[in-house]
Amino acid sequence: MNPEKSSPLLRVRGLKKHFPVHEGLFRRQTEWVRAVDGVSFDLYSGTTLGLVGESGCGKSTLARLILRLLEPTEGQVEFEGVDVSGVSMREFRSVRKDMQIVFQDPHASLDPRMTVESIISEPLRIFGLNQRKERRWRVLELMDLVGLDPAFLKRYPHEFSGGQRQRIGIARALALEPKMIVCDEPVSALDVSIQSQILNLLEELQERLGLTYLFIAHDLAVVRHISDIVAVMYLGRIVEMATASKLYESPQHPYTQALLSAVPIPDPEIERKRKRILLEGALPSPRQFHPGCSFASRCPVVDASCRSTPQTLREVTESHRVACHLVKTS
Amino acid sequence: MTPLLDVQNLSVTFDTDDGVVQAVSDLSFHLDEGEILGIVGESGSGKSVSCLAMMGLVPSPPGRVQGRCARFEGEDLLTLSARAIRKVRGDRISMIFQDPMTSLNPYLRVSSQLTEAMRTHRQVSRKDALDRAVELLDLVHIPDASRRIHDYPHQFSGGMRQRVMIAMALMLEPKILIADEPTTALDVTIQAQILDLLGEIRQRLGTSMILITHDLGVVAGVCDRVGVMYAGRFCEMGPTDLLFSDPSHPYTRGLLRSVPRIDRPSHATLSTIQGNPPNMTDPPAGCAFHPRCEEQFDRCLVERPEWMGDSGEGQKRVACWLEESEAEGSE
C-alpha cells in the first residue's frame, strides 16, 4: 500500500448522518442524533480497513452511508475517483455492483424460502448478467470458492449451520465480482471454532481476488488480526487511525488505550499483570452536542480546554493520526 | 473438605420432533466455598442447560433431568419438590443472565423488582427490604442509589441494568451466584467494569460463583478453576493457570489456538477446528469430538474416554485417550 503511487479506491470526506428526533404530542422535531459526525478516510485497493468501536458509535451507520443504504446528511464518498454521493440512485446502481456487503446475522440476512442457488444467483439476475445455465455455473463456482459443497445447491438456509450460512452470504456478496466488500460484524454471531474458519476464508479470498475490505467489528482482537489499517470510532467520529501494529502496540488516544486495556486476553498470567484503565460511566447520549472532545466526559486525562476545543484528527507520527490535543507530535 | 455444591452424573435430554436431544450427559463437577468456577463452551455444548437443570428450571416436558445427585448444604437439588427448590432458588442460589433488559420487567420500578424476592422468602417489612436494596445498589456502584432505585429499567444503561440484576441476585446473600454469560451483551469497557465487580463481590461477601461463558479471555481473568464443555460433557477441567498454560484436550488446544488475540501480531493464518459442532440428536460414537479431532485414532471412534488424571486438589482432569497413551509412554 503506497498512498503516493495509487489513488484510493474509496475516499470518504466529512461524512455526516444526523437523524431527527421527534417528540411530544405533535411529533415535533426536537433534537438530532449525530450518529456519524464528520468522518474522513481513504481505503486503498487490496487492503483492509478495520473499523472498531462500541455499540452506538456509528460504525454500522457509516457502512450504510457508504453503500447509500442511508442518505448522508453531508459529506462526500468517492469511489474510484468518482464522487458518487450526489448521483441518482439509478446511476448509483452500477457502482453498487462493485461494493457489496456481508451482514452479521446469517440467520436474518438469508431468505428462508429461497434455495441456496436462488440466494447466490439473485444479484446475477438483478443485474441481468447471465443466462440461466451460465448463472448455474457461476453459482457452482462461487460455492466452490467459499467452501460449500455444490451438492447443497437446492437446499434451504435452515439446513445449514451458522458458519455455512455465513459462507452463503459471502458467496452472494462475491457474485458480481465486487472490488470492495463491507463486512459488518461478519463473525460476531459465530462460535469461536467457526469464527476462525470464516476469517481465514475472508483472507484467502482477498488474496485470490484482490478484494478490498471495510471490516466493521466490535471485537478488537478480530480486527487486529484481519486489518492493515484500523480506525477507532467514538460517538460518530474517528478518534484514532493507524496501521494495525502501531495502533495496538502504541495506542495514543486515551479512549483507544482504555478500550484495548479492557479486552480480556486468554492467558491468566498476562491477565494478572495487566493494568486496566477503567472508564467511568457509559457512552453519553449522541443527542448531546459536544463543542469540544466528545470523549471529555469519560476521559481520565481530561483538562480544561478539552471541553471547549474541537478535536480533529492530525498526524502524530507517520501513518498514525489521533484526535487528541494532549498527544505530542513527534 | 466437602464441597459447597457437588453434582454427580447429571444428564438432561429433550424430546423434540427430530428425536431425543442429549443436551447434557453424565456431567459431574463440584464448587468449593468462595470459589469462582468457569464453564466454557460453544453454543449448544450444554453449559447453560446443566445449571438450569440443577435449579429445577428445565421445563418438563420436553426436558428430562436425571442424575445421581446435586448436593448442596445437605440437600439433593435433584430430588427436591418444586416447592422446596423454589425456596433454594433466588435465596441460597441465585442466577443472572445474559440480557439484563429481558430479565427485568419494564413495567415495574427497579425498587419493587429488587425487593420482591426478599419479601417472598423472608418476613421483612417493605421499609427494611427497601433499605437493603439501596445498600446493594451502593455495593454494585450505582451512583445516587437511594434516588435511582425508584427508576424504571429503561432509565438505566445496559451496564447499569446488569448491575441492578447483580444487586437483585445478591439481595438474600446467596451462597452461590450462577452468572450465565453476564457480559456477552455488553461493550468491552462495560464488560471490564462488571467482571471487576464480580471479583470484588467474591472478595467482600465470599460468594461462590459459576461463570458460564464462551469467552476464554473472560475466564482467564476471573476464574479459579475452569471446565471446558463439548457436546454435553466436560472434556477438560482444572485450575485456570494449568489449563491455559498446558491444555491437554485437542479441543481446548484448538480453541486457544483459533482465537485471535490483541497482544499478537496479525495476518498469520489462524488455526481452525475443522468441521461443525455435532448434531446432538445423533452424537458421534466414541469420543464426541473425534470427527473434528486431528489426533484421533481407532479407539476414539468406538470407546468414549473417561476422566483421566489425578482428582486431587490443583490437578487437571482430561477426557481423552491421548492422555492415557501418553501416561503409559512415560512410565
Write up this protein:
The complex is a heterodimer of chains A (330) and B (331). Chain A is α/β, with parallel strands linked by helices and 330 residues long. Chain A contains ten helices and twelve strands. In chain A, the strands form two sheets. Chain A has an eight-stranded mixed sheet, sandwiched between helices. A four-stranded antiparallel sheet of chain A has the order 2-1-4-5. In chain A, α3 crosses α4. In chain B, strands 7-8-9-3-10-11-12 form a seven-stranded mixed sheet, sandwiched between helices. In chain B, strands 1, 2, 4, 5 and 6 form a five-stranded antiparallel sheet that branches. Chain B contains 13 helices and twelve strands. Chain B is of the alpha/beta class and 331 residues long. Helix content of chain B is 35%, strand content 21%. Chain B has two domains: 247 residues, P-loop containing nucleotide triphosphate hydrolases (Rossmann fold, 3-Layer(aba) Sandwich), CATH 3.40.50; 69 residues, no CATH class. The interface between A and B is large, with 45 and 49 residues.
